[in-house]
Design brief:
This protein is of the alpha+beta class. Helices cover 19% and strands 41% of the residues. The protein contains 3 helices and 7 strands; from the N terminus they run E-E-H-E-H-E-E-E-E-H. Strands 1, 2, 3, 4, 5, 6 and 7 form a 7-stranded mixed sheet that branches. A hairpin with a 6-residue loop joins strand 4 and strand 5. The radius of gyration is 15 Å and the shape is globular.
């Protein structure tokens, strides 16, 4: 087995009214990208919590995002798609203010690549098992935290 670099990543569960914010790549086949939550790479010197807010804002276009709580860290092997492993810092986020039920967002990539178009929308939190690429790994912790919050 070839050695795989360890890349620091963030995964963001944005929740409102027991619904989870997801997106799909509008210009790529659904069969290749599936449903995702905001996520991305932690920049050198950047704290994971800062990266979570940045990535969620870049991918969704939402303002008023805030971190509710960290949920933990997972390791994900991205092979064979990429020869790397991801150390994923997972966060529960909320958004203040009005938010559409469905919208188009453009991630600009800091000018390093053409913009990526996403279709963003909300699904029931209980349906989060459909997330691609292991992104649902800590949804159980999120559900437990939300249940504790209601008690």
């Amino acid at each position: 087995m070839l050695p795989r670099a360890l890349v620091e990543k963030v995964v963001c569960y944005v929740v409102r009214d027991d619904r989870l914010l997801v997106f799909r790549h509008a210009d790529l086949p659904y069969e290749e990208t599936g449903l995702q939550v905001p996520a991305g790479t932690v920049r050198p010197g950047e704290a994971p919590v800062v990266a979570a807010l940045r990535e969620a804002g870049e991918e969704t276009g939402l303002v008023g995002l805030r971190v509710v709580r960290p949920l933990g860290v997972t390791i994900y092997d991205a092979a064979p798609m990429r020869p790397e492993r991801h150390r994923r810092h997972v966060f529960h986020l909320a958004v203040d203010g009005p938010v559409p039920q469905r919208w188009t967002s453009w991630e600009r990539h800091d000018g390093h690549a053409p913009p990526t178009r996403f279709t963003c929308f909300w699904i029931p939190l209980a349906a989060g098992h459909v997330l691609s690429g292991g992104q649902g790994a800590l949804l159980g912790r999120l559900a437990d935290a939300l249940a504790d919050q209601e008690r």
